[in-house]
Specification:
Number of helices: 8
Strand order of the largest sheet: 4-3-2-1-5
Order of helices and strands: HHHHHEEEEEEHEEHH
Helix content: 40-55%
Radius of gyration: 30 Å
Strand content: 15-25%
Largest sheet: 5 strands, antiparallel
Amino acid sequence: MENILDFLQGPTGAKLVQVVIVLTLALFTVKVLQKGLNKYIKNSTARYQARKVVSFVGYILVLFALMFIYNYKFSNLTLALGVAGAGIAFALQEVIVSIAGFLAILFGNFYKIGDRVKLGGIKGDVVDIGILRTTLMEIGDWVGGDLYNGKMVRVANSFIFKEPVFNYSGDFPFLWDEITIPLKHSSDHQLARQLMLDITTNLVKEFTLETKAQWNRLTDQLYVENAQIDPMVTLTFDENWITFTIRYVVDFKKRRTTKDQLYTQILEAVQKEPDRLPIASAAFEITHMNEAIRK
């Protein structure tokens, strides 16, 4: 016990006590500030970013406090870094760039929590943005469609300086999607076009109205030409069949369910008009041709 007291009364022990006090105060202050942010900032994304900034500032202040406790002057720090600069730059280059990437992500509007992004061929929803890494809940891979596969992927923040960042939900949280419907040449193409357009318009009308407002705001901010937001049906044909392409806007998180509803409603409508809207099939055409040859 006496040895411990002697150690704490000595210069080394006194500085250790000061370090413990600084760390405790810093941790307490950060927690209090973060709870205050939860109370006064209602937007979840802004609240998350503010909490990250408070934590980062807390780390920096603790570092300066430790330098002050141990009387480590900035001139000594500069000299030490100058002597070991090459080694430090080589060993910590990825860490330094990742920290810079963290600041760029927070203030550069690359992406935020909840956005659906594609980083280095990995597509998923952003669930956490750390100082060194961004965590994604991956979608796709062995799972069909835009559904989670259960993998959590961590990507170094330095990535944003090296390759493109694809954001599917940033300033414009809607996507254009397309489906194709093949019909036989004998189909009533005018009826088919109107039927598909009516079904699509009715299904995505809420998305379309919201998208138009979002798109108008986007064109005010960026140099983007005006685009058709309303659903569109186009037609092409070849020697096999007529193909209708339906283009529409959809919420980036409801792409698969919307496509399922479209296919279902169009199939039900086409089946009610089997004579005027026969669905094309490669197998059907080959069978029909064989029957004609035998006759």
